[in-house]
């Protein structure tokens, strides 16, 4: 029971303890009471932060930090859903920096998102891209993901970060933004895999553009489809998708399906190298 409750930490927003019992709060609104102390879960959820003797939080759900207003007063943290929790004065300086870093990586700020209200325009995917200079030293492989649902985007980011930290995740709110970002990504910055949310209106157009491009058609591209979307599955394969993944609406099962999918594509499938992506097809 306990292991099942914490099998997917990305689903847990925070924990509240009292005596030898702990309430687990999940991102879909569920709560679960377990006969274990908060300290028990602190040892088993290393990515979480103990902010108070009665509370522990998943930093990926933090939306705001309020410093202690006085020398002997507690600070506070606000989670998604306007959940406000106290941060003890003693723990404030221990957690404020790592939580701030986690907030900067939060999926609430989609990569390549524009602050402008101007309409989006799709740039055609070119047949060739000039090399550019890159400063990143880490040997990350990149996976680019279009995910319109912020909650699911957060779960995907946390899942990959926990299980496969060597992969660098780029989240895009729309297929248009992913498509517009491709020309600037060359060499090791090119995605080794692309995942498109089939519910996003322009995902199929993005898929077709990728698969019609000489430079990007070798990138494994997956489409996520909700259960019952048979037409989307057919359109995805007809447009060149390497796989169409059917996922349930339940968040726990959604994570389970994605974990199996990522385990195959990130650890067993042989993704092409950046040089192979730009290599022309043999005549």
TrEMBL record:
Species this protein is from: Larkinella terrae
UniProt KW Phosphoprotein keyword: yes
Stored PROSITE patterns: HTH_LYTTR, RESPONSE_REGULATORY
Record keywords, A-Z: Phosphoprotein
Stretches assigned to the HTH LytTR-type domain: 1-101
4-aspartylphosphate: residues carrying this PTM: 197
BP-aspect Gene Ontology terms: phosphorelay signal transduction system
Gene Ontology molecular function terms on file: DNA binding
Phosphoprotein recorded as keyword: yes
Protein name: Response regulator
Residue intervals of the Response regulatory domain: 142-262
């Amino acid at each position: 029971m306990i292991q099942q409750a914490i099998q997917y930490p990305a689903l847990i927003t925070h924990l509240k303890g009292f005596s030898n019992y702990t309430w687990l709060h999940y991102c879909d609104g569920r709560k679960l009471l377990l006969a274990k102390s908060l300290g028990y879960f602190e040892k088993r959820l290393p990515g979480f932060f103990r902010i108070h003797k009665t509370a522990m939080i998943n930093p990926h759900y933090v939306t705001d930090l309020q410093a202690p207003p006085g020398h002997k007063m507690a600070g506070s943290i606000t989670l998604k859903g306007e959940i406000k929790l106290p941060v003890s004065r003693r723990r404030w300086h221990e957690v404020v920096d790592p939580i701030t870093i986690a907030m900067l990586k939060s999926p609430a700020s989609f990569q390549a998102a524009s602050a402008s209200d101007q309409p989006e325009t799709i740039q055609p995917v070119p047949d060739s891209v000039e090399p550019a200079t890159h400063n990143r030293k880490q040997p990350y492989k990149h996976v680019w993901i279009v995910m319109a649902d912020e909650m699911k985007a957060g779960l995907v980011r946390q899942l990959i970060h926990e299980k496969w930290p060597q992969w660098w995740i780029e989240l895009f709110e729309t297929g248009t933004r992913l498509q517009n970002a491709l020309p600037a990504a060359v060499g090791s910055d090119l995605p080794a895999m692309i995942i498109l949310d089939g519910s996003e209106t322009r995902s199929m157009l993005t898929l077709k553009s990728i698969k019609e491009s000489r430079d990007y058609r070798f990138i494994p591209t997956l489409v996520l489809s909700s259960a019952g979307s048979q037409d989307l599955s057919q359109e995805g394969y007809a447009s060149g998708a390497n796989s169409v993944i059917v996922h349930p609406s339940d968040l726990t099962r959604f994570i389970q399906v994605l974990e199996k999918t990522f385990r195959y594509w990130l650890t067993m499938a042989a993704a092409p190298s950046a040089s192979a992506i730009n290599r022309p097809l043999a005549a």
